[in-house]
Recover the amino acids of this structure.
């Protein structure tokens, strides 16, 4: 059974949404760290940035990856706190590129 480790949702005045969900799960081949996570930045109803470790995008033995626009890129997972920091860094890059 999954245990909630961290949940956060924020909505900006301009309608942008950030939602983060991290769960402790049983360790498995798919999730050897015992963590399942989903982090998303949505603008105008569309995902702009996302981080997750869902099985459907397994690459090089790892299911950790990030979505930047339409691209899916591998992500080197260390722990969920670092992943949250990296996610926010990508969100800030996007905001600085598109909101100036």
């Amino acid at each position: 059974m999954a245990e909630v480790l961290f949940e956060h949702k924020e909505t900006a005045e301009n309608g942008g949404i950030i939602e983060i969900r991290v769960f402790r799960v049983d360790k498995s081949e798919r999730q050897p760290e015992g963590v399942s996570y989903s982090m998303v930045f949505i603008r105008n109803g569309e995902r702009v940035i996302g981080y997750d470790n869902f099985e459907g995008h397994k690459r090089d033995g790892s299911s950790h990856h990030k979505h930047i626009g339409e691209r899916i890129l591998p992500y080197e997972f260390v722990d969920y706190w670092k992943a949250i920091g990296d996610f926010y860094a990508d969100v800030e890059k996007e905001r600085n590129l598109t909101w100036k």
Observations:
- The longest helix spans residues 80-98.
